[in-house]
Amino acid sequence: MNDEVHETPPLIWVYETVAFIFHLVFNIFFRKISRRGAFKIPRTGPIIFVAAPHANQFIDPMVVLIQILDAARRHVSFLIAQASYDKPFIGWLSRRMLAIPVGRVQDTLKKAQGTISFDAVDNTIIIGHGTSFTTECHVRGFVGVSGSGDLAEIKEIISDTKLVLKAPFESVKAKSTLAKGNAQFKVADRVDNSKMFHNVFEHLSEGHCIGIFPEGGSHDRTELLPLKPGVAIMALGTLAKSPDCGLKIMPLGLNYFHPHKFRSRVVIEFGDPLTVNPEHVKEYVEGGADGKKSATKKLMKDILDALESVTVQTPDYETLMLIQAGQRLYRPSRHIPLSLTIEFRRRFVQAYAAFKDDERVIELKKEVLEYNEELQSLGLKDHQVPNAVRDKQQVLIRLVTQFLTITGLWILCIPGALLFSPVVVACRVISRRKAAAALRASSVKIKARDVIGTWKVLVALWLTPSLYTFYSLTAAYFVFKYWSLVDFTWIRLALFSIVSTIALFAASFATLVIGERGLDMFKSLWPLVLALSPAHVDTLEALRLKRQQLVATLTELVDDLGPELFPDIRERLEGTAKSAKPIPAESDARMDLRGLNSSINIQGDYNLADVPVFSSYVLSEGPSRVSRKGSSGQQNAAETTGVDLNQEITKRLQKLD
Predict the structure, then answer these.
(1) CATH code of the domain containing 41
(2) Helix, coil or strand: residue 412
(3) CB atoms within 10 A of CB 140
(4) 461 and 406, same structural domain?
(5) Does 59 share its domain with 177?
(6) Nearest CA to 447 among 222, 220, 626?
(7) How many domains does the chain have?
(8) Is the pLDDT of residue 588 over 80?
(9) What is the pLDDT of residues 194-249, one digit of tens each?
C-alpha cells in the first residue's frame, strides 16, 4: 500500500476541519503554543507517538495532533477510554478524529454488596462482611475501595467472605479506609482488549500513526506516573506481525505553564525517533510468556528514558517552585525564548538532583524559599521587584497614567464582557464541579487541575455559539417587530442573524485582546502603590537588594558546579571545545528567505553556548545543523559554518515547492 493511501483515511477532510476549528479555539485559550524538534517526525511509515505528562485530559490529544498535522501532515489516531468514547459529544468528536477505543477496568466497576476490611496479619487477605465473593468476584478480576481510585487484582477466592489479592492496595486512601473496617467496595472483571490490540496492529502495519499517553489517565502531579506496558506490546506486536514496516516510537513532552488557566502557555517538545531493538522483537516472538514479559520490560525502559529527555519532572511541588524561582533568578548573558525554556528548566532539575546535598545549595534553597514567602506576603511577582523602588514623582505619574489607561480599556471591554459573562460563570462552576468529582474518584490526582482546562474549553465550545445565536435572534426579533426599519422577510432575518452573530464574536475577541492588555497593566499597579507607601519603601529596597544578592550567588554557584555535572562546560567557555551535541530549534521551510541570513548569522537573539547550564550544546537551526556561531556578515557566516548560501536558498525553495 502506498504512502498516499496511508495518509488518506476515510473522511480525512472531517478530521482536518475539526482540527482547524480546535486550532482556532486553542489559539484563544492559550496565549502561546510553541513546539521544538517537529522536523524529527518521519514523513512516512508507522509511528507511535508517546506523549507525557498527561496533564490536561482531552485537551492534550487535540493539541498534539494539531501540531503534528501542521508540522508533518501526519494524521494520528489516539487511544481513548471506551467510557469517554461512548459519551455523546466526546464520542462523536473522537470518531471524527479517528480515535481507537480501549477498555479500562475502572470504567467497568460495579458496586458490590457488603463491606470489606484488611486481615489483621496479611494485607493481601480481604475479609468480607455480608459479602458474596464467590458469585460477584472472579479470579484475575479486580476489587476496588470506593472513593479511593485504587484497584487490586484477585488471586484466589476462598469463600464468600474471604479472598486473596495478588498484591496489596497501594494508595494511602485505600489502606486507611480498609484499616477502619466496613469499607464500601466495587468489583470488575478483567477487560479483554484483544480486539483493540488487533486494530492497532493492523493500523500500524498499514503505515498509519497511533498516539498514546502511557501513564493511562490524566493527572496534575509534578512527576510521571508509572507507565503502562500497552505501548510496548503495541510496538512489539506490530513488528512481530510486520517486521519490515519500519515502525518508529516518537517521544513527545507536553510542558504546560499553568495548564488549567486561561491564556497560559505550552511547549511541545519532540524527541528523537526510537527504533525498537530487533533483539527485543525476537525475544518477544520466540521467548514464550517469559520472553514477552522480558522484551516488554526492556522496551518500556527505553521508552521511559526517551520521555525523560523531553519532560521536566520534580519529586514534589516545593522542588518545582524552587526550580522555577532559580530559573527566574539566574541571569544568562542572552535572552532564552519560550521554546527553549523547558530545556533550561530540565538542566536546573538535573543540577539540583546532583547537588542538593551540597551545603551551599541547601543554604541557597533556604534563602530562595524565604524570598518567595516575602513576595507572597507583599503580593508581588519576582519580575516586579527590580523596578519597584523609583523616584516617587515618576512612580506617581506612571500610576496615574496606567490607571487612566486601564480605566479606558476596561470601559471598552464592558459590552463584550457583559455579553460573555454567562460563559465565564458556567465554565468556572462546571469545571470546578468536574474537578471535585474527578478528585473523589482518583488516587493519583492532587487537586484535579488536569480536568479544569478541558471542561472550560468544552463548556465554552458548546455554550458560546448557543448564547450568541440567542442574542442575534433576540436582536433580530426586536428590530423587525418594533423598529420597522425594513420589511420582514426570512432571508433578511437570516442575514441579520448571521451578521450580528459574527459581530458578537468579533466584539468578544476584541474584548479579549483589550482586556488582556488591561489586566497585564493592572497587575503592575500594586508595586507602584507600595512604592508610594512610606511604610513599604524600606521593605521594597531590602527586597530588591536581597534579590540582587540571590542573583549573584546563584550565578556564581551555577558557574562553579556546572563543570562538575557537564565536564565540557569549561572548555566551551574557554572556546576550545571541538565538538558539541546540538539542540535543534524548530525548522520551518516556509520561513521568509530574508530570515536565512539571520539564521546563519551570529547576530541571533540568544545563544545557549553563552549559558553555563547549556554550554555543552551548540544551538542549531533545524535538521540542517546550521550553527549560529561565527562572525557577522553573510560571507563570514558562510565561511564559518561551511554553508553555501546559494545551495541553502535552493534547498528551501525546493521545500516550498
Answers:
(1) 3.40.1130
(2) helix
(3) 10
(4) yes
(5) no
(6) 220
(7) 5
(8) no
(9) 889 999 999 999 999 999 999 988 888 888 888 999 999 999 999 999 999 999 99
Same domain for 277 and 322, yes or no, is no
Model pLDDT, residue 94 = 86
Structure confidence at residue 155 (pLDDT): 94
Q: Which helix (H) or strand (E) holds 249?
A: strand 248-257
Order the strands of the 581-585 sheet from edge to edge.
Answer: 581-585, 617-621, 626-627
Is 652 a residue whose pLDDT tops 70?
A: no
Q: Using an 8 Å Cβ cutoff, are 60 and 254 in contact?
A: yes
In whole angstroms, give the CA distance from residue 216 to residue 530.
47
Lowest model confidence (mean pLDDT) among 462-471, 532-541, 571-580: 571-580
Is it the case that residue 70 has pLDDT exceeding 80?
yes
The range of the structural domain enclosing residue 377 comes to 315-386+535-565
- pLDDT, tens only, 304-336: 999 988 888 777 777 877 888 887 888 665 566
Cα 623 off chain centre by: 24
335, 303: one domain: no
Q: Report helix, strand or coil for 79.
A: strand
Tell me if the bond preceding 53 is cis, omega within 30° of 0: yes
514 and 543 belong to one structural domain: no
Q: What gap in Å lies between CA 456 and CA 84, rounded to an integer?
A: 17
Contacts of 78 (CB under 8 A, 6+ apart): 61, 64, 65, 97, 99, 100, 210, 211, 212
Mean pLDDT of the chain, nearest integer: 79
- The residue assigned the cell 484535579 is 448
What is the rounded distance in angstroms from the CA atom of residue 580 to the CA atom of residue 619? 10
Task: Please tell me the distance from the alpha carbon of residue 553 to that of residue 407, in angstroms, as a whole number.
Answer: 41
Q: At what angle do helices 59-72 and 452-478 cross, to 10 degrees?
A: 80
Dmax (CA) for the chain in angstroms is 86
Q: In whole angstroms, what is the distance from residue 356 CA to residue 392 CA?
A: 42
Q: Are 254 and 63 in contact (CB under 8 A)?
A: yes
State residue 554's pLDDT score.
87
Q: Region 358-368: what's the mean pLDDT?
A: 89
For the ranges 73-82, 254-263, 498-507, 596-605, the one whose mean pLDDT is highest: 73-82
Q: Residue 590: what pLDDT?
A: 32
159 and 266 part of one domain: no
Q: Are residues 504 and 578 in the same domain?
A: no
- Torsion angle in degrees (nearest 10) through CA of 238, 240, 244, 248: 40
First to last CA, the chain: 25
DSSP 190: P
CB atoms within 10 A of CB 437: 12
617 pLDDT higher than 60: no
Question: Is the separation of the CB atoms in 39 and 622 below 8 Å?
Answer: yes
Which residue is listed with cell 502561546? 32
77, with CB counted inside 10 A (0-12, 13-18, 19+), is buried
Output the nine-digit C-alpha cell for 67.
501540531
The span from the CA of 586 to the CA of 599, in Å, is 11
Question: Backbone phi, then psi, for 157, in 5-degree steps?
Answer: -110, 115
What percentage of the chain has pLDDT greater than the value 90? 30
- The vertex-151 CA angle with 147 and 156, nearest 5°, equals 130
Question: Is pLDDT at 481 greater than 80 in this prediction?
Answer: no
Residues 540 and 492 in one domain: no
CATH number at residue 110: 2.40.30
For the segment 170-190, what is each residue's pLDDT rounded down to a tens digit? Answer: 888 888 888 888 889 999 998
Helical ranges in 356-451 per DSSP H: 359-378, 392-440
